Amino acid sequence: MSIKTDIKCPRYAHYQLSRQPDKSGVFWLANGIKGLYRFEIKSDSVGISDILPEDRINCIGFGKGLEETPAMYVTGNISGEYGFYISDDLGESFARINTDRQQYGVIHSICGDVREHGVFCLATGSHGLMFGRQKNLAKP
User: Fold this and answer.
1) Looking at the whole model, is its pTM more than 0.85?
2) Distance from the first to the final alpha carbon of the chain
């Protein structure tokens, strides 16, 4: 099966593709320009949803969630504010997990720990690998 979409991923933008760890056939695209896309591949079709059509999402990764749903980590601009974000409801809402002082240059990748909710890793362009823990974290 081949997927043809109108989604643009230009050469100059950073974009990332990731699979959703708890669902077969579900992939996410952080477009780097506008949009965070969810692809659900079925036997005879592909469903595409634009989760954040007006926001620039550069990186996406998954980690341990609070319940059965995995935590989604993204970097980019949401509602005009650059940061690193976590979503515990697969993109319905996002919480910023860094401050203005914690930027770390260009972020090439983000992912969460599969064993502990709220723990994540960033691959940066100038500071190497950075590990973080979400503040005020409630234990599941």
Assistant:
1) yes
2) 39
